[in-house]
Amino acid sequence: MYINGTTVNTVNNANTSASGVAKSASASSVSFNAMLQEATGTEKAKTGTASISTESRWQQVAGKYDVTNISTRERGAMAAELMDNNLISSAEGMALAAPYSMNDNLDTRRDYLASSQEALEFSRQNGGSSQQVELQEKVMGILEKLIALNNTTAGTYANMGSAPLA
Fold it and tell me: What distances in angstroms separate CA 68 from CA 65, 75, 123, 125, 142, one per listed residue?
């Protein structure tokens, strides 16, 4: 079988029964799912052997980044992590990771939440395309979710151990 110009051995002839039904795949064969993931650029979340809920993956990312004080380099890492965990689309990831300008210092920290809100308002007021406004709204939703989860985590950890000793 050929997929994207690659020969894929689907059945090892030595492992077929008398009726010609395959008992096992060849050791050198490539799974169809792996080929599909490679061809489409999709992959499953990197969760190891334990299944981690979507909300837990969001929580893990939110705990690492403060979108009100984040550099472009950190936004890129955050976007990659969100995409790797299948939490956002590649278009959303590219929008999150995009530098402010061609001359952007990638390590300068800024309030990305405020900048994104301003950019969305500007697009709405000045005739931005519906696709542009929709993408900016999705980015705002992502940022607001991260802020909410980060505040929840911060509040939980801030309250730990704060009880007076008896």
Answer: 9, 11, 21, 24, 13
| pTM of the complete model | 0.62
Question: Which tens digits make up the pLDDT trace of 107-135?
Answer: 999 999 999 999 999 999 999 999 999 99
Residues 138-157 have pLDDT tens digits of 999 999 999 999 887 554 44
CA distances from 37 to 34, 83, 124 (A): 5, 14, 37
Locate 50 and state its tokens. 């334990």
Q: Which amino acid is at 59?
A: Q
| Domain assignments of the chain as residue spans, ordered by start | 2-40, 54-159
